[in-house]
Amino acid sequence: MIITIASGKGGTGKTTVTVNLAASINRDDVTVFDCDVEEPNSHIFIKPENISSEPISVMVPKVDTQRCTLCGACEEICQFSAITLVAKRIMTFPEMCHSCRGCEMVCPEDAVKEDSRVLGSVHQGKNARGIDLTWGELRVGEAMSPPLISQVKDRINPGGIALVDAPPGTSCPAIEALRSSDYALLVAEPTPFGLNDLALTVEALKKLKVPTGIVINRADDAPGIVEEYAKKEGIEILQRFPFSREAASICSRGKLLVNEMPEMKALFQQLFNRLNQLLTESKEAGEVGK
Amino acid sequence: MKELTVISGKGGTGKTSVTASFATLADNRIVVDADVDAANLFLTLEHKTLENSYFKGGSKACIDKDACIECGDCRERCQFDAISEDFIIDPIACEGCGVCAYFCPEKAIAFEQQVCGEKFVSQTPWGPMIHARLGIAEENSGLLVSQLRQEARELAKDKKIPLIITDGPPGIGCPVIAAVTNADALLIVTEPTLSGLHDMERVKALADQMNIPTMLCINKADLNPETAGRIKNFAEDNGIHFVGEIPFDREVIDAMKASQSLVQFSQGAAAKAVKSIWKEVQQFMGTTLERIM
Description:
CATH superfamily of the largest domain in chain B: P-loop containing nucleotide triphosphate hydrolases
Radius of gyration of chain A: 22 Å
Helix content of chain A: 25-40%
Keywords (chain B): Iron, Iron-sulfur, Metal-binding
InterPro entries (chain B): 4Fe4S_Fe-S-bd, 4Fe4S_Fe_S_CS, CobQ/CobB/MinD/ParA_Nub-bd_dom, P-loop_NTPase
Shape of chain A: elongated
CATH topology of the largest domain in chain A: Rossmann fold
Distance between the termini of chain A: 18 Å
Distance between the termini of chain B: 8 Å
Largest sheet of chain A: 9 strands, mixed
Radius of gyration of chain B: 22 Å
Organism (chain B): Desulfocicer vacuolatum DSM 3385
Order of helices and strands of chain B: EHEEHHEEHEHEHEHEHHH
Structural class of chain B: alpha/beta
Strand order of the largest sheet of chain B: 3-4-5-2-6-1-7-8-9
Number of domains of chain B: 2
Strand order of the largest sheet of chain A: 3-6-7-2-8-1-9-10-11
Oligomer: heterodimer
GO molecular function, one term (chain B): metal ion binding
Number of strands of chain B: 9
Protein name (chain B): MinD superfamily P-loop ATPase, contains an inserted ferredoxin domain
Number of helices of chain B: 10
CATH topology of the largest domain in chain B: Rossmann fold
Largest sheet of chain B: 9 strands, mixed
Shape of chain B: elongated
Number of domains of chain A: 2
Largest interface: A-B, 56 and 62 residues
């Protein structure tokens, strides 16, 4: 089962929840996939060893000028201004290319050949406790993260428990990470900014038809705006993590809360038990439905 | 006219709180919210919307079931697995390349430009604010950011406003590149955590690729003075102009809850620090070269 941890607003604690949840599950089939490929941080906490890395590229066109007759068909089909006719020359702009292969398909002279652009890398390693982490790292200067996120997700083995750390925001990178998840766990911060972006993410998840739950991070004592919103939307709040300066300090040093604060470990275990219950129920309901 | 873009790499370090304060401290400025898929500046700055317009992004393909003969040509050509076995195009998976529509032998696929969001020009008591709302699960945020900045430049020229302050998105990808391209200076707002340090290094590498002078401030610096020190050292070693630290202060959240900028709401330690940082930023901006428009 695939549980994706998302938030809308940045810095609410997605990575903190992902890595601590992973460390509090007492099973040997837990894998973590860091899909915040622009700024991956899970490896700072999980500390994987024996890391293997693989460069990831996408197809971009290269024009064989011997064959090209400057007919302009490729320019016409390209929606992304990645191939254009400039002063009797075909120019390609690989960084604009979305790898749709339209130019290659349309060229009557078979003059468009395959070249590649490096998006970044996918790394994988296991830590001393056996938690397996796969993460993407976008090349600095590269604009398109969704195809790299998709490559990270291709490595998910749906048999075990996969925790996916999503990027912030509500546009393509976040959507790519959330697509085809079994459950979305939203980490909400009880502030006006946090609530605004949480609501945007909930709307996106309705479109994606992914079941959703909320955890509140840095919760204060007063029942607040997130509870009110969740009640109105009929979304379950699975856990509340209280604000604590000690917790903030532990996270800032790249350490796991579940190793340093027993009370936090209990909260994360509770969270996993509830998640497990929800997913088992939905799986059974799905099988009955069949 | 000069442009300052506030970025961070890591999300949630306080970009918007800092930008909102600058936007109320600056004498004559335009402020742009370039975090278009999670915009928050409008929640902080009192404003009245004067103009709104639709944002048209890319196109999407849609199969006309009556005209479709289910030949499968489109499914074979689509590189994004966006067309189901029963010939329905998933608008979320559709990349907007138009290849299916171009080649469809029955011309059964419509390919039309989509409205992907809304753009706003608003007036605040401290000057214009240009912002947007990207539609739910829409794409082309980079294009939208470029358009907002272009509108801000035109308005600045028109009204002879000397400064544009842009609140950037987190990360280093497409909307960030759109938010920093051709800026005169960048301010990185980071936090004293290993994640903040790691992400700041990547965003600095991006600034270097684009050759943009860069400043740095550390928010909540007292939460981990040791890491704050490492970040300061990194700044010094890498030609980043350090403009100050902001202490952890509950009034930052209280200001947000009161829908005010920090410097409007509070006289506390964080507000004082942001005021002093703003002075430093102004001084640094004065040293960058004026761009010819």
